[in-house]
Amino acid sequence: MKKLVLTALIAAVAAPAAFAAAKCEQHPKEQWIKEADFKQKLVKEGYQIKKFKVDGNCYELYGKNKDGKKVEIYYDTVSGKPVKSEIQD
What keywords would UniProt list here (predicted)? Predict the structure, then answer.
C-alpha cells in the first residue's frame, strides 16, 4: 500500500514538471508579436486570461477557453501558434 501511495505521489509531482517543458523556437525580440496585441487577440477568441507571461521563448496563458474549461497553453511568440496545451474539464 505504501508503495502505491508513493508512486501516485511521485506521478502527481512529476506531471506538472513534465508539462512545463514546452520548447518554443527562439526568435529575436523585435520579431515577437506585442504582448498586449496577442492578449487582445486571445480575448477576442473567447479566452479568459487569469495569468499571461513570458516563459523562456514562449508566451504562456493560464485561464479558461470559450467553453469555460481551464487551459494552460504555450504559444510561439512570432507565429502565435500553440506549441503545447493542456485543457481540463
Answer: Signal
